[in-house]
Amino acid sequence: MDPEGRLGSTDISVRRSRRKRWDKCLLGVLLLHSIVIILVFEKFQLNSVHEKFHLNHGQEVQTTKVWYYYEDGVPNTRHNSSKIVYTVDKDEEAVSWILRLSDMPKIAPIAAERMMLELEKQLQRKSGNKQQQLSNAIRANITGYLRNITQDELNKVNPEWKLFIIDHSDRGVGPWGLWYMETELASMLGWKRIHYITRTTQEHHHMDSWVTQSKKNSQIASDFGTFAGIPINFTEHLGKACSSVQRKTYSARDDINDAINDYMQQNFPSSIDAENDDVTNSPAVAKLSRPMDVRTFWNTTVCKSRANRCEFRSYIAREIAALPSKHPTMKVNTDVVGFIHNTGRKFVSPDYIQALLTTKIIVLAQRDKWEGHLRLMEGLLSGALVLHDPQVYWPYGVVDGENIVVYHSMVDLERKIVYYLDPANEQERISIGQRGREIALSENRYWNSMERLLLNDDNKHVNDYGVSYQPWKGHSNP
To answer: Where are the alpha helices (DSSP H) in 4-131?
Structure first.
């Protein structure tokens, strides 16, 4: 500044530099403020969607938050549910924990810590002191402390926190799982928050014994009868080990359905609406020209090393292969198409998709000792008519004569194949195949089954065997 108080060039430069820095700081603050506002708005919007998803009629849809205890993370599957919200915070107020049966010993100490936090929240609410904790002695031996609390008291502690324990095994793990739930988990968490989900809700499924008897006595016409199994009775475990036992079935695979859609778009683009959903396009899939009459996708070469598991499947394949000797115009195929075993569960073969979509009737049979397999939903997705041996429990919405056809003996199987291949019954066959694809896509995707398992009314629909299995949809039960 000169003697008369005027700014020199150096002073002007300095002030301009300061102003620029100030402007940048101000701009940064405003930008940060804007980002915070946007994030808060988006979080509010997201929470609004998750917590209150409205139907057209203004009815709120029930939702649940889910935390997975999987060492390999959340299952890598498509998730199109507006009712299930995944979270990484296991300690949220109302959250459902999902874990595998084999992970129960690992989850027990984690669940005990969560229970300790819940008890401390109760103390804090009563005292008004948000810093209050259980004594150091109790915290050091929280497991022992919890097991001295009555079940009634444990069940009242934050009932919105639930555990869903899933048994994915083919034949179940025997009594160990339910014993562990009762003695190790329910004893310190309360049985009401524990729910057991299993694929094994039947026993005495001995189709290999039926094969042996049929070969020995040549009673090919004999009904499968009780060889197909009976329900397991879980009633003694309800109210002790868990609050509910629910049936888990294999879901329709997204990759198989995607491959079917790709096949249709490449080969019959004018017959489908790419802008519409998969269910809408089901009639076009079901009405495809299908030159092959019958396929099994199975023969005796598949499981030579584990023949004790697939006597029945192999028997069915041999009988199907022999049908042209009695029905010369019938085209049958028992070739194994595409990938098998674990490879077939992870990857999709184009040859397999083509075979599915060019076959009128797909004949399926289950393993000798248990029920349920991926092939059922794959067959239904194809839009072909699926002929299947009996099951104790069917996947959601699958009904004999409506969207699948069940055979009860070898004579019954042959009779139904001949009937549905009769041109006079073609429309009936196509209609059942179409409805089979529709039920697989509309009610048996992964998220459909998870919604039913997580949001079902645990005690409203329990059969005589203690299994929660009746239909559920949204807020109303049909």
So the answer is: 9-51, 104-127
For the stretch 71-81, pLDDT in tens is: 555 555 556 78
Residues written for the chain: 478
Dihedral sign, Cα of residue 398, residue 402, residue 407, residue 408? positive
pLDDT at position 3: 39
Helix axes 410-421, 311-321, angle to 10 degrees: 50
Token pair for 112: 């005990």
**Amino acid letter for position 28:** G
CA distance 239 to 152: 11
The predicted model scores a pTM of 0.82
For residues 16 and 14, give the distance between their C-alpha atoms in angstroms, rounded to a whole number: 5
Residues 6+ apart with CB under 8 A from 252: 377, 378, 380, 381, 440, 441, 444, 445
> Do the bridges between strand 60-61 and strand 53-54 make them parallel or antiparallel, or are there none, so unpaired?
antiparallel
Sign of CA dihedral 282, 288, 293, 298: negative
In contact, 97 and 67? CB cutoff 8 Å: yes
